[in-house]
Amino acid sequence: MLGQQDVGHRIVVRRIVGIREGRPLFSDALGELVELSESHLTLATAQGPLRVPRDEVHRAKRVPPTRRPTAAAVTELELAADEAWPAQTRGRLGGWLLRAADGWTGRANSALPVGDPDRPLPAAVDAVESWYRDRGLTPMVNTPLPLAAPVGAELDARGWATRPPVLVQTAPLPLPSAPPRAGAAAVELATAPSDEWLSVAAGRKGGLPDAARHVLTAVDEVRFAHAYADGTLIGIGRGTVTGSGRWLGLSLIEVLPPARRQGLAARMIRALADWGVATGATRAFLQVEQSNTGAVALYQGLGFTTHHTYLTRAAPR
């Protein structure tokens, strides 16, 4: 049977999906085990999250591991991503990072448990809870898998909620080129976001408090992509170079509805990638919810593959 030690690992589940002529019908599912409770288990599959009641599980076992990134590689990328999305308020718990930004985005308002918290795990989670509640925020933890699987098990025991799995994807630079398209919108890169850019970002993220502006701009190497058609902003994107200059981070790639499905998102990504290469970056990364199949397909077409996944966990109210 599966146990908490299997969380963060790839497993195959044979589940009972019906009965025919008195015999059970089975279906197999393959994915990363991201949640295991007394009542159900959740897999991150290629088609999205799959929640399976425990009483439907006929058999489950680990799949022999494929080549996975080392703990050091996951930590390196997570720290580069933290630099690329810097919370205004920061603290440390040993090697763990504590981050707050007036509640704007989960990434900037969650603990990142990489390294040793310098205390037993239950005491570390107690300290995380206190740090966030003292600031009027719901305690949250980003758990990179399988690196933070033990942390996830402790949070499971405390009844913390689990948000949808996020894929951390990477690609080598430069990205594959594409032929120019006639009449394509102009993409411009700027060192600061325009008011229109900020308005689009606010619409996507539910407002922009002062802490959000810090998250967006407090990076030494940052560019903001603006895509225009007939003088109207129709697309935005953001690129950063962090991790000792190695990593180009891509975020807030957004195309307004009338301009979608015309290749504009890929053009903005390529423009930011070209800037990253000129700056010295050798690899690109981005973070995308696994359930966002359209975006995952776009990034796959540009050469991105999944490096690791993470879950955002939130304490019970």
Automatic annotation (TrEMBL):
<keyword id="KW-0808">Transferase</keyword>
<dbReference type="InterPro" id="IPR016181">
    <property type="entry name" value="Acyl_CoA_acyltransferase"/>
</dbReference>
<feature type="domain" description="N-acetyltransferase">
    <location>
        <begin position="187"/>
        <end position="317"/>
    </location>
</feature>
<protein>
    <submittedName>
        <fullName>Acetyltransferase (GNAT) family protein</fullName>
    </submittedName>
</protein>
<dbReference type="InterPro" id="IPR056935">
    <property type="entry name" value="Rv0428c-like_C"/>
</dbReference>
<dbReference type="InterPro" id="IPR050832">
    <property type="entry name" value="Bact_Acetyltransf"/>
</dbReference>
<dbReference type="GO" id="GO:0016747">
    <property type="term" value="F:acyltransferase activity, transferring groups other than amino-acyl groups"/>
</dbReference>
<dbReference type="InterPro" id="IPR000182">
    <property type="entry name" value="GNAT_dom"/>
</dbReference>
<keyword id="KW-0012">Acyltransferase</keyword>
<dbReference type="Pfam" id="PF24553">
    <property type="entry name" value="Rv0428c_C"/>
</dbReference>
